[in-house]
Structures are given as structure tokens and as C-alpha cells.
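Re: [help] complex structure
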Amino acid sequence: MVADHAGSSAEDLYRTVRLIRRFEERAIELVRAGNVASGIHPCIGQEAVAAGIGAVLRHDDVMMTSHRGHGHNLAKGSDPARLLAEILGRTTGVARGRGGSFHPLDFTAGIYGATGTLGHGGPMAAGVAWALAQDGTDRVAMCVFGDGAVNQGALLEGLNLAALWQVPAIFVCENNHYATTVPVQVVVAGSIIGRAAAFGIPASSHDGMDPNVVLAATEQAVARARSGGGPSFLEFSTYRYEGHHTFELSAGLRYRGDDEVAAWRARDPVELQGRRVRVQRRQEIDAEVDAVIDAATKFALDSPEIEFDEGLDYLYATKMRLRPGADNA
Amino acid sequence: MVADHAGSSAEDLYRTVRLIRRFEERAIELVRAGNVASGIHPCIGQEAVAAGIGAVLRHDDVMMTSHRGHGHNLAKGSDPARLLAEILGRTTGVARGRGGSFHPLDFTAGIYGATGTLGHGGPMAAGVAWALAQDGTDRVAMCVFGDGAVNQGALLEGLNLAALWQVPAIFVCENNHYATTVPVQVVVAGSIIGRAAAFGIPASSHDGMDPNVVLAATEQAVARARSGGGPSFLEFSTYRYEGHHTFELSAGLRYRGDDEVAAWRARDPVELQGRRVRVQRRQEIDAEVDAVIDAATKFALDSPEIEFDEGLDYLYATKMRLRPGADNA
Amino acid sequence: MPSLSYLKAINRALGDEMERDRTVFVLGEDVREGLTNATVGLLVRFGPERVLEAPISEQGFTDFATGAALGGRRPVVEYQVPFLLLLVLEQIANQANKISLMSGGQAGVPVTYLLTPAGRRAGWGAQHADQPYSVFGHLGVKTVLPATPADAYGLLISAIRDDDPVVVFAPIEAHGVRESIAPADLVPVPLGVGRVHRAGADVTVLAIGHLVHDALAVADELDGEISVEVFDPRTLYPFDWNGLAESLDKTGRLVVFDDSNKFCGLAAEVLATSIEQMRLVAPPARVTRPDSAIIGISAAADRALLPSREQLAAAIRRTYKNGR
Amino acid sequence: MPSLSYLKAINRALGDEMERDRTVFVLGEDVREGLTNATVGLLVRFGPERVLEAPISEQGFTDFATGAALGGRRPVVEYQVPFLLLLVLEQIANQANKISLMSGGQAGVPVTYLLTPAGRRAGWGAQHADQPYSVFGHLGVKTVLPATPADAYGLLISAIRDDDPVVVFAPIEAHGVRESIAPADLVPVPLGVGRVHRAGADVTVLAIGHLVHDALAVADELDGEISVEVFDPRTLYPFDWNGLAESLDKTGRLVVFDDSNKFCGLAAEVLATSIEQMRLVAPPARVTRPDSAIIGISAAADRALLPSREQLAAAIRRTYKNGR
Ligand SMILES: Cc1ncc(C[n+]2csc(CCOP(=O)(O)OP(=O)(O)O)c2C)c(N)n1
Ligand SMILES: Cc1ncc(C[n+]2csc(CCOP(=O)(O)OP(=O)(O)O)c2C)c(N)n1
Ligand SMILES: [Mg+2]
Ligand SMILES: [Mg+2]
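Output below.
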């Protein structure tokens, strides 16, 4: 199990990247088996980013994650069993199965958002961060998004708000070099960090395949936010091995070459971090993680699905009810 | 009358700033007299920007202007009489009275847009410029907007598109230091030109009170665009003496001090440019301009208003008709 | 008894709620100056941290409000022009309004979206006079349209206290309405509960927003000839179907007087539901804007396009004669 | 005779129009790869200048298309998710769609907005299954919903050639439909003209989009018991009121089968107009989504929320019995 938060020792980081890797592999198996109606956006290859930021954030910090967010949830402290149940749309899930793989909101772990509307988590995170600061706490809010989302105007508007009001927010761009099938250089003029810098936000680019590098960069940014120093922007260069979404398992898209994938796999974060842990300890952690995944799978598969008549439970916080679509409904 | 385009001699520039000044003064009188339902956003004080850019653009170039756009129309070649008629909602107006002061579209003068939605003229201008380039011409498109509009995400999205596709567009920010009642520094983090530079667009700031300065900066940017060098971004520092909108004549807002207004008036562009013209010539031009304004006023006031049943003419390019709101309508 | 204006009622509701609940704050353009009058004086009373001057970034600050709400605040976001609610529709309807469900009930989003200048602004051109409230109802966003100062006060208070997103349309053409009412009589008005402004026996006129006052004037004109009941749902969504049904149980005749576009507008919904479920002795009628008019370019043309008292009177007479 | 799939029909329409008219180009996300299949092969045929790969900047590229149209082009802008049409609603309805009027007829804006995956995507969560077409009709934007491959081809061609903005919704649940048709028989289908898919004497079922096929199946089930006419308006706005009136002149009975939210949705408009203006011998009925449902979080729950064949059959039977 991941603890309150993931911890930052070499072993902790290894446990996290390994947990995310095995979790996603299991999730893909479950997609193949037809248990996940939405399919998933696997983060396999990007585990170092999640592990690094998760090791720095506190449990009471807030994160707005993305559609490729399972790793963020896990690193931030979501219960793997309840996260997997969520992905399978079970009522025991972190969001009672109503969020699914794309929106596994988990307030117990500080996961306040995962909006389908790319980039819009940015201004939301600025709003959360503003509220946290108003409360006089040193809690921070982080938003994670991709290289494609940096082209969404609302995200840039959010950077301006964060800079104007010096909120304790950290904006993290996981640059995995593609937005679905589109290479980043085809759609991003100038540089990604240059956009944040234009608002006077400290912005830097880093290797996103090494948990230690991510951790070090994140520590600086989080420290700045906690001490009232305002927002930061971090870009991590990373890669998703499995493609954009599990539909690629069958779709056969041609937007990238196998050699490219192989080159990135050669820098695999799980392998890299694994080499930083004594072999025997590593085997223990692997076994521990496998047990967690197996237990999570059993828990998820044994959990109840949303019933026929439960679709609109929670539609309104005030429990307001709707008229049906047909009189005999 | 202003010619095909405004011309760039000292006299030409003086004629243009003087024309705009007198045009706006007359428009304000007509607002006071109750002839302009919308009121206007006077550009008095900002004439140098309009005159400078108008002297560089060709008649067949395209401009997307703003709600404070009368000066741009005039400098680009709109007939003052038909522009004034437009502002008065007369069917002889440049847009048959359907655009009014806020949207005096005039395709005969290359004024393709003046959207109420701040900032959105930017991506539209990128689209026009792209089409012009596809046609193999050396025509360019310019978009003019204020310091407040640079906070609209869609404008920043448009800068990215313009930079990616290297379209012949010139983005002009008239920084008059306020968005309605809000000082620019309260809402703009970082710098205005920094935002354009972040997309790799050449961007520079200039004095917007001197027509010569505006002209020189604009010539460079337009030359770059015509020669396939891509987009540019120009910021001109200027000021509106009369306030945001003629409602301020009565509203009595307190967001700025008289001393500030006085300081800017001391750098009045009409006076400045007037000193560059021989006294006698200046008097001739003034008389000429006054005659144009008087003729325009007569033309506008004598022109027919939109009839009761003409409200939805032109609603669709295809002349489609609507059902009325009541059966007995 | 002091006379309260519509805008003053909104201003007082904001002040009272900010006083009562320190999690309430306002966010928008020119809110410190109080350009629309809704926020006048709040900066001095509550300071800059609770009167946030926003850049012209409506999407961004609408999302920001969602985040602030998730962080425990009750934001009131003000917009200056009707089309700005279309600009941020996705952030309200697809994001803020879905978080309760998407989170499995872990969080609500208690944001109030206040369009102080709703509807027509005579002569301000094609982009300043839309009335898109039906769109928010269609997408399930709670939406209110107060007609009177007391209702403006009471509905805005309830909107701010509601745990879901609520859009408040304050029609420009109601801003001039004044009401003699003692401050003590200003109370919250529950969402989803209509109000009979005038009792009548023959025809029910359902009017909402500023048109309530025109409906009352027409009802008075017809007094003696036809006994008209004027029902104001006050909330567009959720709609007070019971209140309407009660009125129709009496009159059996319905005319809907609505300032939105005809096609798929509120009036269409009211007609459809009334014939599906309510007592009607004659076919119901509606008086609305045309299918999808553009209002605002010309006062003369607007008169031909906007729902008018003459049209309402004629529709009432037709409906009254029908089925006799 | 070759069998044509719905998506292939869209793809062919794009190719044919781009071939015929060099001012036509496509713009959108993943259009070069042809992720949705709508644009497959176009890059190779027409090159990168006419297949523009856009950043994730929907508002920006929607405005860009408006500008390109003013510059003489006929852009086809593709969107990947229904909520993206809400994200750009203001740019379409308040900007592009108003330029003809605002310019006093100086310019039209011939842009086609193509939502290839319209409507429900089973299990994709709360933000991937909306069906907001009624909103575009309410705001006066021409809107089409083809039900068959031939109509998808013909309506898309007409949308591209139309001088006003047109939104094309291609329901995901119709993507599987195939039709045996010779390429030569693929012709433009005029906007605003409906189609009787099945003639009947007792009850008219108005269905649109993918629901047309469910309506036909139900009509067959009821064959012998009730003679059902299935009318598909094909265009949501402008609506083919004459076509509907003709059908009701025969049957006098109406059931509307519509995948949009009930409150202020298309079905409400059709019910309202039918009782105002058409021959009805029994009260009309509608089968729709609930007032403002969120679809997509669970296949089981969706079945309880989406308009179903069972609901339609029951509504037809009720309407048939009524007034006898
Ligand atoms: C505003 C918006 N536009 C388009 C989409 C459809 N979409 C979902 S994921 C995706 C690609 C995102 O790329 P990126 O931001 O780089 O994140 P990654 O998938 O690479 O992690 C797109 C276009 C969306 N969800 N929201
Ligand atoms: C997107 C949008 N938000 C708000 C408004 C309302 N509004 C009209 S003008 C204006 C101020 C614009 O300031 P600026 O861009 O600096 O131009 P200026 O008026 O100073 O010339 C505002 C907020 C609008 N028209 N569009
Ligand atoms: Mg990416
Ligand atoms: Mg300004």
C-alpha cells in the first residue's frame, strides 16, 4: 500500500513507479477482458513524473489531474483497490464509480479534479490554491496536464490568474511529445515553458524519466509555493509506450515508429529506479506490489456495479430529481 | 475625403488624426443629442495609432478592428459619411446600419471584423491572413485590440496559430492602460509583448502618441508579413481622454485622476502632428476636414433609419426567414 | 416605507451574504468600481480579497471559481454581457455542474453566476441583447430570473446558499423596477417555487423576468373583459410545475409570455408539458421572440421582434374564445 | 451494389467536395491521421495545406475558420467530443452566425462544423455523451443530423455549399449503419427538407438521427396492430414544418422520439408547434432523455435514461388509443 504520501527514499520511489506500472498493466488486461467500458489512457512510461511529484506533495495538498491520471492518483495516495474499482465503474470506487478512468476524483487523497476539458484544470487549480492560501494554510494545489493542453487558452488564462494573485500553485506539464497522434512541434509554437515565463512564472524543463530529477525540481517549486513565493511551472519530458488510449491496441495508427518507442523504453523509469534498490529489497517490493494489485483486482471485480436506477444519484449536491424522458419511464 | 489609403506624408498623417479627432467629437455631440442609441467608445487621444497603421496598410489589406474602432475605419479608408451613418443606424451606413458603432464592418475598406467578443478578432485575422497567403497574394491582415483583450485565451490561441502557420498577420495592441475601469497592471501579469514573444512572434513596444513612430514600426511589421516573414506583434502605448464609453459622460467613475488625463493631453497626437505641418496648410486641412465632417453629419442625419420590418434582413446569407414570435405578429 | 430598486436589492443581497458568510466573495470585471452597480461599495466594506478584480478571461475565472468552490468558497461571478454566458457555457454546464455526479457526491460546486445586465440593451447592436436562459435549463443548470426587487434579493440569497451552480439572470428591463419594502421583509426566496402575482379565473399568463410587469399591465387592461391570472415561475430550472398545474386547474387556459427565442425556448417546454400533464380546455399559446431573432440593432426593429403587450393581449383573447 | 458505411459516406463527401471546390479545406485535431475516420486519406490526396492539423485550441481555430471563410474559403472544422461544441458555442452562435446581419449582408460565413462522434459514447464517463443539438437550433444556427449514409453524404455536401454556418451532428450510434447504394446515387440533400422513411396511417413518429432506425424497428414490430409513419426531419434547424404537417394531416397523431434532454429540447418545440398549428386528434407525446440527464457513466444506467424502443412503443400505443 502507498502510505499517507508516497515517501521519497529510493525504495519509496521504486515502490511507487512499480505500483503504477503493474497497476496500468493490470488495467490494460482488464480492458482487454472487456471490464472497462471506457478503455484507459495508460501512463506506462510516465511513472517517474507521478512518483516524483507524489513524493513531494503532502496528503493534504490538492491535485488536479488529467485523463492520463491513474499514476497521479496512486502517487498522491488513492487506494489502489478503490481506484481500480472506480475504473471498472463499481460503486466501491473512489468516486462511487461515477467518475471512471477519466475522472477518478478522490477527495480523500486530495484529487479534486480530472476534467475532460483539456487545460481547464489549470485555472481550477489556481482557484483551489487561492482558497487554500486565504485559509492561511501552507497547503498547495498542483495541476498536471499534457503537451497538447498547453494550447488551450483557458490554461494560459489560468497562468495569468495564478501569477497575478501569487497563488500557491504548481503547474506540471507532462510533455510526452504527442497529443493523441499529433507531435508537439506541429502544434506548439515557441516553447512550452516560455508560455509560463511570459506571465512571470518561474518555469523550467526537466528529464521526466528519472524520479530523482522530478522530485528535486518539484521540491523547489512546492517550497516556493508553501513559503508564499507564488506559482511555478515545471515541464517534464517523458513518453507513453502504449499509445494514447487502449483503442490503439486495435486501431493500428501510424503516427510514430517502433524505433522511437524502443529508444524511450531503453530509459525505462522502473528499471532505472530499480537499479537504485538492493536486489533483494527490490524483489520484496515487487512481491508486495503484486499482492496489492491482485487484492485490488479481486476487490474491484467483486464490487457491485451501478444499478439500472442509480445513474443520476449525486447529479445535484442538493439531491434534486429530474423528470423522466417518457411518461412511462 | 481620405483616399484609397491614408497616405504617409506629414500632411497626410495630420489630415488623418485631425479627421478622426473631429469625427469623434462630432459623434459625441450626436450621442449627447440622442442620435446614437449605443453611445460610442471614443478613440480621442489614440488617433496616432490609427493614422500610423492606416498609412501603411493598403486598401486591399484586411483589418479586424475593435469596439474603439472608428479611427481604424477612417484611417483604413471608410467613407466618413457612411461610417457616421452606420453609427446612427442608418441604412446608408457602411454596414447598412446593422453593425452600428460597435461593428462598423466595411468590406469596401477591408474592415472584415469588429467582434464584440474581445480578443477573438485575433484568431479570425490569422484565418484571413492564412487565406490571403493561400491565394498567393502579398495582402496582409491586421488585428487591433486593447490591453484588456490580451487576457482573452482565444487571442493567445490565435497567436499560436499565426506563428505555427507563419501567416501574414500583424497584431496590434492599443495599450491605453485601462480596460474599462481596470488598470492594465492589475490584470496583466508579465508583459504584453512577452506573451507574443512566447510563441516566437517578433514583438515590440512603441510610443502610440506619435504617428511617425507608429508608422515606422508598422512598416517593418507589414514588410515582414508581405515578404513571407510571418506574423508580428506591436504594442502602442496610448490613452483615451474621454473615458471608456460615452456613458462615462454621466456615470462619474472614479478610476483615474484628472492630473493623469492632463499629462496625456500634453502629448496630444493632433497637436504634435499639427506642428509638423506649415501653419497655412494646416488651416486648409482643418477647413477641409470640417467640411467633410459637416457633410458627413448632414448625410447621416438625412439618411433613412431601419424600418420596423427590416430588423432581420440579412440575418442569413441565404435569406432564410424565421417564424415570428407570436401567431398574430 | 423605503423604496428599493432592483439593482439595490441585488447589491444588498451580496452585501448581506458576504456579511453573514465569510466564504462568499465576488469575482468579475470592474467589480471594484461596481460598474453594473451590483457590487458598489463592497470593496470598501469587505476589502480586495473578497472583491476580486478579474482580467478579461471569462473562461479562466469561471474555472477559477469552480476551484475556489472546491476549496470551500461560495463565489459569486459577475458577467457584463449576455454572450459571456455562452462563452463560459461549457465551464458551467459540462464542468461545474457535473462535478457532483462525477465525484460520486464527494463535492458540490456552490458557485453563483450573476448576469446583471441580462437581455436586451436597446441599440447596442447584434451582440448585446441575447437572452439565452433556456439553454442553461436545457443543460440542467439551475437558473433563476427575478422580476421584482424582493425576488431579486431573495433568489440571489438562495442561489448563493445553494450547493449547486446557479445562474442568475437580472433582466436589464427590470432594473428600473422599484418596490416599497422594509429591509426586514427581505427574505430568501426558495428556488423552484413560483408566485401568483395576480389571481384570475379565465386565463393563466405565465410570464418570467421583466415580462411579468408587462403581463400585469395587460391583465389590468383586460380587467372586466377577461379575468387573467399572472403566474411567475421565478426559477426557470427547476421549474415549478405544481404551481402552474394549480393555476391551470382554475383557468384551464394558458398563454406563455417569454423573452427567449421561440425555437426550443422555455415557452415550448411549458406548452409541451401543459398538454402532456395538465388540465387545458383550450390549446395553449405562446408569445416569444421569433425562432432565433437577433435583437438590439434598431429600436424600431426590436419593437417588431420582441414579445409585446399587444401580442399578449391578442393571444389572451384568442385563447379565451377558444373552446367556447 | 456496393455497401456504404455512414463514416465512409462522410469521408467521401469531404473528398468529393474538396475535389470539386478548391476553397474547401478541413481543420481539426488528428485530421491528418484521420482519427475519427472522417478525414482518412485526405492528407495524401490534397496535401497538408488543405488538411490543417490544429492545436487543442478549439476557440481559436473556430474563429480562425470564420476568418478563413471571410477570406473566401469554405472550412470544414472537425470536433472530437460533443462538449467541444459547447466550448465553441459563442464563436459559432454569437460571432460566425451573426456576421451576415452585422455586416448588412456584405459577407456570409460558409463554415461547416462537423461533430463526427455525436452523442453517447457508452461508458466514457459524464463528459463524453452529451447531445446538445437543440441548443444550436435555439440560437438559430443551421443544424443537421443525418440518419443514413446517403443522408450523411448529401447533407454534408449541402452544409459545405451553404453560405451560412452549419453544424453537422453525426451520431456515434448511427456510425454502424450501412446502405447499399451506387456512388452515382449519392446526391446533395437540401437543408430543411425531411423524409418519410415509412408511410403509415395511424400515428406519426418523428425521429431524428440514429433514433430513426429504432423508430423503424418499432414500427415494424407494431405492424398489423398500428400503422406507423416514420418522419425524419433530417435538419433540426431550419425545421421542415410542412413535412410534419403533411404527415399529421394523414395520421393526426404524433409521438416525438428525440435523443436530446427533455427540458427545452427539440421534442418540446415539435409538440408546441404541432398543437399550435397542425391537425391533431389526440395529444402528442414525446420520448426523450430525462430533463437534463448525464449519460455515459454506466451502460446499465444509460439504458434507464436513454429514449428506448419500449418507451416509444408504449407511447405510440397510448397515443393511438387516445381520442378514440
Ligand atoms: C479541450 C479538449 N479538446 C480535445 C479533447 C480530446 N482529447 C482528449 S485527450 C487529447 C490529447 C491530449 O494530449 P496531451 O495534452 O498531450 O495529453 P496526453 O494524452 O499526451 O497525456 C485530446 C485531443 C479534450 N478532451 N478536450
Ligand atoms: C470577452 C469579453 N469580455 C468582456 C467584454 C465587455 N467589455 C467591452 S469593452 C471592455 C474593456 C476592453 O478593454 P481593452 O481591451 O483595454 O480595450 P479599450 O476599451 O481600452 O480600448 C470590456 C470588459 C467583452 N465585450 N468581451
Ligand atoms: Mg501529450
Ligand atoms: Mg484598454
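The pocket of thiamine diphosphate (ligand 2) is lined by residues B 41, 67-68, 116-118, 145-149, 152, 174, 176, 178-180, 244; C 29, 56, 58, 80-81, 84 (CB under 6 Å).
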